[in-house]
Amino acid sequence: MISKFEEPLLVTRSFLPPFEKFVEKISNVWDNRWLTNQGPSHQQFEERLKDYLHAENVTLFTNGHLALDSALRVLRLHGEVITTPFTFVSTTHAIVMNGLKPVFCDIKSDYTIDEDKIESLITEQTTAIVPVHVYGNPCNIQKIQKIAERYNLKVIYDAAHAFGVEVDGKPIGNFGDISMFSFHATKVFHTIEGGALVYNDETLKKELDLLKNFGISGPEEIELVSYNAKMNEFQAAMGILNLDYIDANIENRKKITQEYHRNLSDIPGIAMKSSAGNIKSNYAYLPVLIDKSEFGMTRNQLYDTMIGYNIYSRKYFYPLITNTTAYAGYNANIPNAEHAAERILCLPIFSDMTSEQAVKVCDIIKEIHYTTKHGV
Ligand code: T4K
């Protein structure tokens, strides 16, 4: 029997740059005593992100959730919004907390919204589509754009998982009206907590800056009612520094993903997806779909058994939003999302994971499969 991991192997592990480099980056905070409220690192980070993402406009936020909330607000949406149930609850919360009604559309085999089912959900009340590039898998951007133009709808992409992804050589944030990135500690690229909006319409910039700062436009003027969602200088410094490592981190994640593919591909009942050739992936997550009849046990049984080996995978995204207490009563025809939520398991992947760790996870899964099938 393969030995268990000595330390718990969690679904992910935050990347941290060398400690001294971070201290160096924040030393100016001790000189100028400017800790937050659009300080020099905040401004510098915004500019650096524009370059990295080839973006016309970037607005930073203290987290991805409030960034998404602000995106929905600045576009003055009302009525219904078509979205996916297969996501982290933040997506739906942002919609509902803006007074909008989420209308859930089913997903495809790559777990993103099924663009062919969007049109049948459009009503007189629909004002926007909020798709999610879930696990960093790009939605069908072109078809969604066509639908949006035909029905005069806004498109706000929840790109929380998709930092660094490109489609046909174009960074993912360049599509739709606004895209939101999360820079949470668990993400491929992070600022401890943090988030950003990327958009082409520069007229949105002024209001987004107001929205994240209580609506304050000057020492004696408050233009609108809003919250505090500012990114502070420590977060921005972490972001500037982490930009130096992002490409190498994505490269290592690619290697780890390939290792998983190589070692899991011949196990019956474990399905993994590869990206299409025109997509540059960020390898953010490692979702596998477990088919009980072929693998020998259910996703839940595999999840529990792996804990015995000190491996803590995660059931992102189970339960579906529509099956939570908060969203009881929101009915939807979403069989593919229900199928995925019952079978999906995200295996450990992180920027400094080693090939040995990935191979050991695979060997353990092989052992679990073998002993289940053969009863030894
Ligand atoms: N839209 C989508 C589609 C999203 O997935 C998210 C966030 C958002 C919007 C909102 O963006 P933010 O407002 O968060 O910027 C995590 C994250 O907290 C959340 O950011 C993320 N999605 C979601 C998918 O996952 P949990 O509840 O799974 O986190 P937690 O604390 O269980 O951490 C998971 C693993 O990460 C731990 O087992 C170990 C590792 N970890 C975690 C933390 C907090 C670290 O290594 N270091 C850390 O500091 O939600």
What structural keywords apply?
binds ligand T4K; globular; 12 helices; 376 residues; seven-stranded mixed beta sheet; single chain; 17 strands
Explain this structure.
The chain has 12 helices and 17 strands. Helix content is 37%, strand content 15%. By secondary structure, the chain is an alpha/beta fold. The strands form 5 sheets. It has a 7-stranded mixed β-sheet with strand order 2-10-9-6-5-3-4, sandwiched between helices. Strands 8-7-14 form a 3-stranded antiparallel β-sheet, with no helix packed on it. Strands 13-15-17 form a 3-stranded antiparallel β-sheet. Helix 1 packs antiparallel against helix 7, helix 2 packs parallel to helix 7 and helix 8 runs parallel beside helix 12. The structure holds ligand T4K. Ligand T4K binds next to helix 3 and helix 4.
List the helices and strands and how they pair.
Blueprint: E1 9-10, H1 19-32, H2 40-53, E2 57-61, H3 64-74, E3 80-83, H4 89-97, E4 101-104, E5 126-130, H5 141-151, E6 154-158, E7 166-167, E8 170-171, E9 178-182, E10 195-199, H6 204-211, E11 216-218, E12 221-222, H7 233-243, H8 246-264, E13 270-271, E14 279-280, E15 287-290, H9 292-295, H10 299-307, E16 311-312, H11 335-343, E17 344-346, H12 355-374
Parallel strand pairs: 1-16, 3-4, 3-5, 5-6, 6-9
Antiparallel strand pairs: 2-10, 7-8, 7-14, 9-10, 11-12, 13-15, 15-17
Helix pairs in contact: 1-7, 2-7, 3-4, 8-12
The structure holds ligand T4K.
Ligand T4K binds next to helix 3 and helix 4.
